[in-house]
Structures are given as C-alpha cells and as structure tokens.
Write a structure and sequence with these properties.
single chain; 163 residues; 4-stranded antiparallel sheet; alpha+beta
Length: 163
Amino acid sequence: MKDKFKKIVKEIIPYIIILVVVVIVRTYFITPVIVNGTSMVPTLDGGELMILNKMSDVERFDVVVVDIKSEDIIKRVIAMPGETISCENGIVYVNDRRQDEEYSKGITTDFERIVLGDDEYFVMGDNREGSLDSRKLGPVKNSQIKGTAHFVLFPFNKIGNIE
C-alpha cells in the first residue's frame, strides 16, 4: 500500500510543479490579453490576442495595459513622468517638441498643457477620434500600468512584434 502511494505521488509531482510554474509565470511575468474595441486602430484591432509583459520598464511609445476603475484598457505611452504635454492645432507637443506620430489615425483634439507628476504617464489610443484616454481620464499612475504589450499571438497573419 505504501509503495503504491509513493508511486502515485511520484507520478503527480511533475504535474504539480508544472502547474505551480505556470501560475507563477502568469501571475508575475507574462499573461495573455485581448484587445477590446477600436481605440488602437490602425496598430491593433479588436479581438487580437497579445502577450502582456509584467516585468518590463515602461518607455515612451510603448503599448501598455492600464487598469482604469477595474477595467483594462490598451493605450500608447505618449509622455513620461515629469514631462509636459499639450496639443495645439492637432499637433502633440512633449516638452515643447513636436511629436512625429506616424502610428496615429484621425485628428487629435487640442488640449491645454499638462505637467505630469513624478509617477504619472500620459496615454492615448492610436485612433485619436475613437479613444477614451488621458485626454479625458487624466494621467495614469505607474501602479495602474499592468505591463507592456509588444507581441501579437493571434490572428496568425499578424503574429509578431508590434510597432
């Protein structure tokens, strides 16, 4: 009886280890995320499956997942902590420098100069006319950013790194 129990435990242990590793990786390192809506068109379409990297540092122009009132939204980082951002005549300026926004679609509505705090980021969707973002929601805190998303897994014809 003891030998039979030991044999069963020995057979189960690898599966338990695999399960624990998967849970740890998904909780602390990477997890799948699905794009919802059209706010990131033309870069991302609704329904695309991406990998969220929870460990990477956030840099300008990264695509990030942000927790806004328990809802995840996917946006692009436009301005970093301590910077100033504004939009005049549809042109975005960060620290008074015009931003080249080849990835964006539509007209960016003007907004007054905003000075970001030491822990604040300004995020916008690439589809400027169809995005609820920092222009309405205000800057996001670092603690609200769940991670960066650089890789599309599905659909298969779009698999790979995003720009």
